[in-house]
Amino acid sequence: MNLPGRGDPIAIIGCGRVGSTLACALSDHGWSVAHLASSSRASADRLAGLITGSTAHATPQEAADAADLVLLTVPDDAISAVANSISWTAEHHVIHCSGSLGLDVLPENVNRGSFHPIMTIPAEPTQGILDGATVAIDGDDGVLDLLERMANDVGGRPVRIKPEDRVLYHLSCLLVGGYLSSLGAEAAGLWSQMGFDPKRGIEALAPMISQVGNNLGEQGIPSALQGTVHRGDVEAIRAHLAVIDERCPHLRGLYVGLAETSLRQAIACGAIDDNTASVISELLASA
Asked: What is the per-residue pLDDT across 73-102, written as a single tens digit (0 to 9) for each?
């Protein structure tokens, strides 16, 4: 099997956020992103305008016919259908970019791989967005070497995730990349009850969210763990539960679930004594 390299043309099928980000990152680092296709021709045309020398094709088949290395950056639930709609050859290296799916969603007659950066992808391609990002990879024999080179070239840190661990891995990513943004939205929404536009809440909270990430990366666990539960601030927790009942009862389940998680972590690292832990546990159980 001859592995494609930087000088060989790449086809990107799916020109949304992920496809655009990977296409621009690979192109910026010397890979030949030459052929593009998307369910929206406008998206393919737009991405072609960002990458010198690339061509937007009318169909995925046209893009796949023009390159041996093909990245399928379509939504997870479309990967199998799109992959099976294309006629492949044994020379094709077909890479999907799902975090939760294994190689079995791709046809068996191609050289299969997966390439999933752990990163929240912005609406517009941003230079350097993948610098330092871990990239989960998997692949058939030989394909892993190709994916490691790709990940290293875009500034990433490749790690192989075993097939049986894919969903657990994706859950880990979701708790941060998906649910952290949902949590931020809920927190910002509380600012409307204080007479502010929720956008002002985002402005206030976004720097804190960024610093939480910095603390986790720099200090690790458990040093970066903070909050009222870790401080054993029983009265603050009691006040939170009271204001939730009064002004935002829809947050009760969310608050209690997060507080119970913090309590388990605080007990495990010895941040609070047994008596304080018992009081907090009773408070949350009665909520």
From this structure: 999 999 999 999 999 999 999 999 999 999
List the chain domain ranges: 9-161, 168-285
Q: How many CB atoms lie within 10 A of CB 187?
A: 17
- Sign (positive/negative) of CA torsion 102, 33, 50, 39? negative
157-160 β-sheet, strand order: 55-56, 32-37, 9-13, 69-72, 93-96, 111-117, 134-139, 157-160
Per residue in 135-177, pLDDT tens? Answer: 999 999 889 999 999 999 999 999 999 999 999 999 999 999 8
| Residues 6+ positions from 64 with CB-CB distance below 8 Å | 11, 13, 37, 70, 86, 87, 88, 92
Question: How far is 14 from 2, CA to CA, in rounded Å?
Answer: 25
The tokens for 5 are 């390299």
pTM of the complete model: 0.87
Integer Cα distance of 282 and 287 in angstroms: 9
Q: How far is CA 60 from the centre of its chain?
A: 25
Mention every residue, 6+ apart, whose C-beta is less than 8 A from residue 88: 64, 94, 107, 109, 110
Q: Distances from the Cα of 4 to the Cαs of 91, 92, 180, 196, 268, in angstroms?
A: 10, 9, 37, 54, 48
Which residues, listed in sequence order, are joined to residue 134 by a DSSP beta bridge?
157
Please name the residue ranges forming H helices in 190-233.
198-219, 228-231
DSSP track, 111-165: EEEEEEE-SPPPSS--TTTTTT-EEEEEESTTHHHHHHHHHHHTT-EEEE--GGG
Residues 6+ apart with CB under 8 A from 115: 22, 71, 95, 96, 97, 135, 136, 137, 147, 150, 151
The fold for domain 9-161 equals Rossmann fold (3.40.50)
